[in-house]
Structures are given as C-alpha cells and as structure tokens.
Design a protein that fits this description.
The complex is a heterodimer. Helices cover 57% and strands 0% of the residues of chain A. By secondary structure, chain A is mainly α. Chain A is elongated. By secondary structure, chain B is mostly helical. In chain B, helix 2 packs across helix 6 and helix 4 packs antiparallel against helix 6. The chains are: A mainly alpha, B mainly alpha. The interface between A and B is medium-sized, with 15 and 17 residues.
C-alpha cells in the first residue's frame, strides 16, 4: 500500500514538469469594453470584473492551483474557450453585429444560469451572481445592445 | 288526415330538407375557409419599417419557402417545441428591437452554416426537411446580409 502511495506522489511530482501552457495575461488592453464605455454603471463593471473577466478577457487572475498539473489543463482550456467565445479586452474590434450577438448570448446564458460556469463559481465564491445581479446584468446587456443602434 | 294536408306536409318537409341541405353546405364551406385562413403561414414579405433607419425587415419569397419547409414547424408561437419557440419565433421577429433582430439573424446564419439546424433528430423523423446545400447557403447569407444591413454596416 505504501509503495502505491509513493508511486502516485512521485507521478504527481513528475507531471508538474509538463508545461502548463496557460493563456497569457495582459493588463494593457486599449480596446477593452470598460475602458471605452465609461458610462457603463459601476455595479455592472464590478460584476463583469468579478464574474466574467477571468475567462472572457486578457485580465485573468490565476490562483496557485491553476499551475498544478492536471488542473492547469482544465483551467487553460476553459480560459481559451472563454476568450474564443468573446473577449471583453478586444471589444472595440468587434463589428456592431458581433457585439449585438455577444450581448444577446450574455443575456441568454445568464438568465439560463449557464454562466458563470458552476465549476468556476465553486472555486470563486465572489463570482457567484445573486438574483439581483443577474437581473442587472441581463437588463444592462439588452439595453447596451439597443443603444448601439440608436 | 285528408290528402290536402298530407300534400301540404310533404311539401313543407322537402322545403325544410332543402333549407337544411343549404345550411349544411354553407356551414361546411365557412368551416373550411376558417381552417384555411388560420393555418395560413406568415406572408411572403413582412415589411416593418424601422424608425431608426430605412432598412425594413424583409423575408424574400425564396427564403420564406425554405423557412416554411424546415424551420417554421418548431419556430412559431404555436409550436409544440417549447425550446424552439422560445429561442426563435419567426412571427415575433419583425416586431423585436433592432439589436435583437440582428442577434437572432446572426445566430440563424451561424447554426445553419455549422449544420446545427435543423436538428438531426428532427431530420431523421422528417428527412424531406433536410436543407440542401443551396438552401443552406441562401438562408444563412440572407440572415447575415440582413443583419449587416440593419446594423448599417
């Protein structure tokens, strides 16, 4: 039994030498949505930063376990997927049609409680959205989308 | 009962029979026309002009045919598909805000291009509803073009 435990521990240590390959972080994002739309209400800005930005922007915060293989693979893939879906840091690069579509998807995903992901909020309790916060976010994304075409 | 009364009665009877027959025909015709009207699909061209720009929400007849064939069954307000009518309702579409119209059109274009719609399960049950390549191209390019026009791009 002891031998098996030693083996597992040795394996876990060994696999740490596999590069984590986590997506890059950048705080210099001139096309960021919040940098270019100062009239977005403060409460919305806070919600976006606390509950969405880790996966949907370049401003990801990596807790210590993100660097531990194999957790790093899951974290890395979630962030890559999130940024691929849409990236708030590149907001001003999107066409108006793309912005409308993203905002509608945000509205839908939040109201169906598909976002933020459960696995994320399990480990980030401050990212959990209350019912009020959900309403605020959904209302904002719909109104913001409308304002693009006025 | 004398013969005159019998004659009078039988005449009245055939009159009543005739009236009944006519009434039944009228009722049947009305019922058929009502049924036809209620099952009529949305018009070929829904023209709602937008107050913000000059682009109106139009569905050309060749696209309408495709929508009627493969999409409308699930994406109408009376659909038995709860999710279908919630996600996209072609009857409501012309009345939605421009931003929502654009996002719905963008989504239509995407799901048609990546083959996610119509759903495989649905096509297995109704193989004649499968979109041909040409139909898929026509539908997805109409949707993305209109989205762009509505956005003023």
């Amino acid at each position: 039994m002891k031998k098996v435990i030693y083996l597992i521990v040795a394996l876990l240590i060994l696999i740490q030498f596999i590069p984590a390959n986590l997506p890059d972080v950048s705080s210099d994002n001139p096309d960021d949505i919040l940098k270019n739309n100062s009239d977005i209400p403060q409460i919305v800005q806070t919600i976006l930063k606390n509950s969405c930005y880790d996966c949907h922007s370049n401003e990801t915060h990596y807790p210590w376990y993100s660097f531990v293989v194999p957790v790093s693979f899951l974290v890395g893939s979630d962030i890559k997927n999130g940024r691929n879906e849409f990236n708030f840091s590149n907001w001003e690069d999107y066409k108006k049609t793309e912005k409308a579509e993203i905002l509608d998807r945000i509205s839908e995903a939040v109201s169906e409680a598909k976002m933020p992901m459960k696995i994320y909020t399990l480990l980030h309790r401050d990212a959990v959205l209350s019912d009020d916060e959900k309403k605020i976010l959904i209302t904002w994304s719909d109104e913001f989308a409308e304002s693009l075409f006025e | 009962m004398n013969i005159n009364n019998v004659y009078f009665c039988s005449r009245k009877l055939s009159q009543i029979k005739r009236i009944m027959k006519n009434l039944i025909i009228v009722v049947a015709l009305s019922a058929i026309s009502l049924w036809l009207l209620s099952s009529a699909k949305i018009e070929n061209k829904l023209v709602i002009s937008d107050s913000n720009n000059d682009i109106s929400f139009e569905i050309p007849s060749n696209v309408q045919v495709i929508i009627d064939k493969s999409c409308y069954a699930c994406h109408n307000p009376e659909s038995s598909s709860v999710k279908g009518k919630m996600k996209l309702n072609f009857v409501k579409l012309p009345d939605m805000k421009v931003s929502k119209q654009i996002s719905k059109l963008m989504k239509i274009s995407k799901v048609i291009r990546n083959g996610k719609m119509p759903k495989e399960k649905y096509i297995k049950k109704h193989p004649e509803k499968r979109l041909t390549n040409d139909e898929a191209v026509a539908l997805s390019s109409w949707a993305s073009d209109l989205a762009g026009k509505l956005a003023g791009e």
